[in-house]
User: Fold this.
Amino acid sequence: NALTLARADAVRLNTRIEYVATTSGWVVRRADTAEVLHSGTGKESAQAGLEVTYDPEDSRTVTFDAFGRRTTNTDGSAPPDQVDITASAITGPGTNEYHPLRLQILASGVTRLCDPALASTDSRACL
Assistant:
């Protein structure tokens, strides 16, 4: 949701906006002034026992331009293309139905949740 919020703010404010994953959660900020517009603690991941992995591994910033497209970050680094989400401790009803998910961040700025384990012919599969 924070990525969608950052993209919408980029279009609404007609400026570059960054989503940054931090050690304590996330922030959405203006790229030019670093003014924080929104932030979150990320506690929902810790409570659910979720593990989040970025690709590329060291990339934790996604910058959106004024048209809402993903673009090169202010520091020149590339934004992540995908974020993998897996649960480290799965218990309870429906446990056998669990499957990891992938959040793809397309060049257009659109985010897409998909299942990396599905065949490419399935509409829920990753692109």
